[in-house]
# Entry
Amino acid sequence: MPLRSAVKPLLCHLLLIIAAAPAGAQASDLGWMTRAEIEALPPAQQVPIPAWCSGTYYNPELAEPDPRADTIITADRSRLVPGGLAELLGDVRVEQPGRFLRADRAEMDQDTGDFLLEGDVRADTNLFSARAASMRGNTRHETAQFRDVEYAMFDLHVRGGAGLIEQQQQLIHITDGSYTTCPPDQRGWALTARQIELDRDTGWGTARNMTLRVRDVPVLYLPWITFPIDDRRKSGLLFPSLSTGDDGGFDVAQPIYLNIHPQVDAIVAPRFIQNRGSGFDSELRYLTSFGQGSISSGWLFQDREFDNEDRKIGRWAHRGQVRRWTLDADVNYVSDDFYFKDLDAGLDVRSQTNLPRQGEARYRGRTWTFLSRVQAWQTIDPLLPDQNKPYRRLPQLALSGDPTIAGPLRLLWLSDFTRFDRETDLPQDDITGDRLHFAPALSLPLHRSWGYIEPRVRAYHTRYNLQGVDTLPDSEPTRDLTGISLDAGLFLERPLVLNDTDWTQTLEPRLFYNRIEHKNQDDIPNFDAGELTFGYNSLFRENRFTGYDRIGDEEKLSMGLTSRFLDTTSGREVLRLRAGQSLYFKDRRIQLDNRPVDTREWSPVVADGTWYFSRYWHLFGETQWDRENNRREQNSLRLGYSDGERRVFHAGYRYRAREDIKQTELAAIWPVHRHWSLIGRWLFDMEGERSLENLIGVEYRDCCWQLRLVSIRDLTDRDGDGTLDPDQTFQLQFQMIGLGGFGGRLETLLERSIPGYGRNYANTIH
# Structure
C-alpha cells in the first residue's frame, strides 16, 4: 500500500506526458482494426469506415480519458530503494479510463520525478498507440524519450517509427523516423528523415535529410522541408499541377503558398507551357470585417503560338455582409478573346461570351430592400454582332418592399433607376441613356389552410432620357400601363395506402387570370428585356418578359394542377406531378427581335414530373405540346443519382424546337471497385450527329493515396471564324493522403462538367 501510494502521483504525471506524445504506426497491432473486426463489434461501438479503406485505427476498449478516475497499478514484484527510488518488476501495468501503460520493468524517483520503463513498453490511449524498447523522462518537466518506437495516431490516420523520440513539453524531436498515412498492410508511400522536429505550439514540423519513398523505392530527396501537423497554415511549396494538350503541349505549374497574415494568404505558381512559353498564375485571398474575397491573376509572357504577345487574365471576387448589407463584387479581365480557348481547360468557360465586371451593395430589411449596382461586361466573342452586346449599368438603383396598409391589404412597391451605356461601331445601335421605372401594386392576399385568393392591381410607369436616338422618334419617351391579376388555389389532400405504405396525396388546382393593356412600345429602346424559357412556372407570371423595357400585353387565364405524394411516416415528398395551360383572349402584339404577333389562342400544354424513387435517385421529365399546330415545342428528361459521398450520375435529354437544340448528355463518377472509379461526360448533338464535349477518366483511391487521370475533348473555335475544331487535353491529379498532392485544377473542371458533383466527393477521409 505505501508503494502504491508513492508511485501513483508519478504515474499520473507520466500518463499525461504519454497523452501528448507523437503518433504513427508500422504494426497492425497498434490499434488497427479491419473492416470485418469492426463489423463484429456491438453496434454501439462501431465506427464508420470510408468505402475505399480496409480498416481504421480504433481502440474500443479505451473510453474518453477521465482525470478524476482512479489509477490502478499492478506488477509481479515491487520494492522501495533508499533515496526515494521505486522499482516495479514483471508485467508492470498502469490503467486509467482512456489510458493504458505496460512495461517489463519500471523505475521512478519520487524526489526528482525521473522515470524509466524498459522491456516491451506499450502506451495506449483512445487517440494513439505506441510500442517501444524503453521510455525515460521526467514528470515534473514534462519530458519523455522513446527508443526503438513504433506509433500510430488515430485522428490523423498516420503511423510511423523512429530510433529515438524525445519530447520537451510541446516540442518533439524524432531521430531516424518515418511517417505515412498508409495502413499497416500497404507500402504505398512514406517519409523517412534523419531528423524530424514537431512543434505543437506552431502546428508545423521540420524534416532534415528527408526521403520520399513510394513502395519502398526512393523517389525524392530534400535536405530540408517543413510540413503541417495540424490545420494551421504556413508558407511553402505545394505539389505541381500537370496537364498536356494538342495546342500547348506539356503544361506544368509549381504553386508556392504564402501565409502572409492570419487573414491573408496567397498562392504564386510559376507556369511553363511547352509550345507557348512561361509565365505565372497567382491568387490572393483575404478576410476582413467587410467579408471575404480573392484576387486572381495570370500572365503568360510572349506566347509563341499567339504572335509572341503577352497573355493576361485577372479577377476580383468578393462577398460579405455588414449587418443588413450584403456586398458582392465580380470583376474579370482577359487580354484577348481566345485566352480561355487556349489556356484554360474548363469546358463551360470556353463558351462564355461576356465576362462580368460588377459590384453591388444590397440592403435587406424586414419590409424594404435596396440595391445599388454597377455592372459592365467584356465581350470575348469576336463574332458577336453589335446589337447583341450587353449594356453597362452605371449605376442601377432599385427599391422594393411590401408594407402593410391595413389588415391584409399590402402595397407591393418596385422602383428602379438605371443608366445604360454601350459603345458600338454602328450608330443605330449606339443608343444610351437613363431609365426610371415604377411598378407599384395593391395586393389583398387571403390565405387559409385549404386555399388562397390574391387579387392584385398594378401600375407601370417608365420614362427615359436618351442619347443617340436618330433612329427613334423621341429622346424622352414615356410609357404608362395598368394590369390586373387574380391568383387562386386550393389545397386538398387524402390518405392513401399503396404497397402497405401510408401515403398522403394532395390535389392543388390553381387559376391565374392576368390582363395587361396593350401600348405600342416601338419608340422605346431595348436595354435589358429578354424572354424566359417557357415552363410551368411562367404560366403564372404577370410579365412574360424579363427586365423593364418591354411589358407584355396579354389577357390570359392559366390553369394548373399539381399533385404530390408524401410518405406519411417521414413527410418526404416522393412524387410531384404538374400540368397546365394558358387560354389567351387576345393576340400578343408586343414581341422581341421583330418577331411576328403571337396569335395562338392556347399556349403549349406543359407537364412535368419529379420522382424521388429512392433516397439518392430522382427522375425529372417535362414536355410541351403545341396543340394548335400539333407539334412538340420542348422535351427534357433528366435522371440523377447522388449519394453525397462517392457516386454521381446524370443522364439527360433536351429538345427545343425554337433554338433547334436536340442533345443528349451522360455524366458520372461511379465506383466499379472499392478503390477504382470511372469518370466520364458525353455531350452529343443529335442534329449535327457529333460529340460536343467528351470527358473520360479513371480514379484510384485508398487510405494511402488518390490518383485521377482525365482526358478532355471538346470543340473550340480556335481562330474566331466560327469553325469548330476538336481539341484534346489530359490532366493528372495525384494526392498522397495526409501529405498533399498536385493537379488541383482538375477539381474545378469536374465541378463545371458533372451536374451534382461537389468538392466533398474529393475530400479525403480526414
